[in-house]
Amino acid sequence: MGLPRFLSFRAFVTCPLQDAQALSREHTANACSRPIGSCSVDRNCELDDTFHIASTLQGSFKSCQLSHAYMVEYGLMDDTYLLNLILRAYGKSGAMLDAHAVFNSMRRPNIISWNTLLGAYAFYDQSDEVESLFNSMRQRNIVSWNTLITAYSHQGKCRNALYLFQRLFEECELPNDVTFINILTACSKLAELQTGRVIHVRIHMCGLDMNVTVGTALVHMYAKCRDLDFACNAFYQLPERDVVSWTSLISAQAQLGSADLAICSYEQMQQEGVLSTKFTIESILTVAAKKLSLNQGKALHACICFGCSKPDVNTGNSLINMYAKCGSMRYAWFIFECLQSDATIVWNTMISACVEELYYLQALSLYNQMLQRGLCPDEFTFASVLSVCAFLLSFDIGMMVHSQLLEEGHMQDLVLSNTLITFYSKCKAFDEAKFVFKKMQVHNVVTWTSMMAAYAQTGLYEQVFTLFSEMQLQQVRPNDFTVITLLVACADSIALERGRELHAWIALERNGCFSKVSNGIINMYAKCGAVEDAFSFFNHLGCMDNAIPWNAMLNGLAYRGHGRATFAFFKRMLKEGTEPDEWTYVALLSACSHSGMVEEGIYFFNSLVCNSYSLLVLQHCICLVDLFGRVGQVLLAISYFCRIPFLPDVCSWSALEAMCRAHRHCVWEILATEHILEFDRQ
């Protein structure tokens, strides 16, 4: 005996799931006692229930279960339309076992049923099930193909997506805009320009190159393939351009270094009356931070915020970054205070801005405020604070940050562990640096290089080379900083033969390309006393239009006390048209100091002050003080030290203290020591 359908679906879903069957039995019993004619409302009730079941399936997982139970109870399991809705609802809720059970129970699954289950598996990244289901489909439509291509693209299986796209054409299926958008995403991730151009041709053949969404995807693809000309062509061929396409173009121009074009595009977008989104604003502010002057930045700010009383967190964050990069920490602080935000990203941006602009104490103050307000610093916060501690040699604060990292479980973060090693090595806390290194489960090239630098700073040069050998055994490829660290270790330990071996290894590994490590090689040879080798390598480099390699050669000669050779090389530098910088004069004054050439030292210093005063730095003054001290003119050195037009740093006081101790000038030795201790207390 079939169940009469008198129970309203609305009544069914308002009760708890466990009471639904009891309620249906009660209504069934009541229905059996009614006159037969009263069943005439049943057909209308079926249509009404179908409508309400369909509506309920848009709701929660519990509503889906109730709907499914009602359909089972009242024999609606032959309704493919409703079963597809149940299937989709289970799929959206992640109940894949339930979804599969519903699919298997369907007597007549249609193409929508197959695609719905396929889409559910794809959404939850179950790629094996997606492939198996797709291959078992007897009938497919473009939705089926799109579902699998989308799944591959989003899961990073871009080669699979391209293969499937080719297979689609072989099976004579016509792609649509969704197909091309997703295959362009795959092509973008692979950054394969030629493949992208082939897809562009097929888009044109299908008549979809005028589609705004497809055109925007083309712009994005060409940007990722670093072809700005094609990106611009694809954009300007669009019959109409929305804010998404404009944002893609501006982002492309920004990413590929065409800041002027990005700003012009933004202005053109505004002239065409297209309203910016937060993504557009963030893109243009990123460009502005790299390119604009402060006044241009202010004008852009006014243009962006016209009609807005207060920027949102993301826009405000970008404005802080822009003003800091434009050199106005004052306006950056103003935006930060206006935001009144507890978002960690905003605090991170402000702390990072302070670090970049050398406002180290303000950065530490912001970090302290974060803790007082109960905000949670993240790995970016900790990295910035540790870099400040490394610069200020703030060992106690750095130790406190290390404790927080341990408490909050951040020690598995590779970047933070590397930063900790650098911090401890700067503070000469070698044991702590070694402890962090040994506790790390993974070592990358930065880790190895940081640890080598720590060994080098403490004079443990043999350990530097041992660590390099271990690094090679681990098959970690050294970078430029690794090579420079090794060259410095060779130079400081006067290990000429080891330096020559390293030079030969660099030549072999880099096919004779020395562009970024050439200064280190020159410095190594010069400091090891192999001046002829240094000259030979310098001449091998060819024409040089910047002062850096010249300075390396000058420093090497100065370090070995070759004063006359240093001056002769400086004349050659001027003759070949290379403009000296502040470090050139540091090398010259250092040569005078090491060679005891007082008159020449005074000459070069006066020449610097009279002709290139803008280049004057503290190191020039300390070199002159050191020169006077080396020739025994201590009172003249102290007198000049007192008239230095810069605030002496800890290195300056240390140099003065060493000079006074050597010449037994007790009063100034004590005074210098007190200043050094004051720096330590800070």
From TrEMBL:
Keywords: Repeat. PPR repeats lie at residues 110-144, 242-276, 343-377, 444-478, 546-580, 581-615. GO terms for biological process: RNA modification; system development. Pfam families: PPR (PF01535), PPR_2 (PF13041). GO terms for molecular function: RNA binding. Gene3D superfamilies: Tetratricopeptide repeat domain (1.25.40.10). Transmembrane segments: none annotated. This is Pentatricopeptide repeat-containing protein. InterPro entries: PPR_At4g14850-like_plant, PPR_rpt, TPR-like_helical_dom_sf.
